[in-house]
Amino acid sequence: MAFYSIYDIAGSAMRAQSVRLNTIASNLANADSAASSEAEAFRAIKPVFATIYQALDTTGGVSAKRLGSASVAISGIVRSDRAVERRLEPGSPLADADGYVYYSNVNVVEEMADMMSASRAFQTSVDVISRVNSMQQGLLRLGQV
Questions:
Q1: H helix or E strand, kind and range, residue 141
Q2: Residue 64 included in any domain
Q3: Nearest to 73 by CA among 121, 132, 32, 12
Q4: pTM of the model as a whole
Q5: Which end of the chain is less packed: N or C, by CB atoms within 10 Å?
Q6: Is residue 115 domain-resident?
Q7: Would residue 101 count as lying in a domain?
Q8: What is the DSSP code string of 40-54?
Q9: At residue 104, what are phi and psi to the nearest 5 degrees?
Q10: Of 49, 51, 28, 40, which is closest to residue 106 (Cα–Cα)?
Q11: What is the mean pLDDT of each run of 10 residues along the chain (145 residues)?
């Protein structure tokens, strides 16, 4: 596996975690938003990731393919199907005819845990790139006397 492949793989992971952090920020920003109907209430959004495998050609008599590496792609973003919170607030200007106000289905504790996980995964990819860069610099120094 060439060094550029490592950069591509780590870059795909960083892009995926950036999308994840963006959706988390959006969810947290709308965590306490209210609406006058269930259909208008904010629903948490989550990214969906897919693995992209790259085959490695093995030469030497037999033409077999082996798994070379895998990167990540963003398949899309989906809305949570968790129920929105319905509160009786007859005095609210957003209350429906029955006096209910609908709040987002964002679980703040879950989002904070996801944020910590995403930021650590992003930092891990940064560390991978940094170490590969250090390895390349070491290879270049081998030729110097």
A1: helix 108-142
A2: no
A3: 12
A4: 0.83
A5: C
A6: no
A7: yes
A8: TS---EEEEEEEEEE
A9: -60, 160
A10: 28
A11: 83 96 98 94 97 74 64 95 94 94 97 97 96 89 76
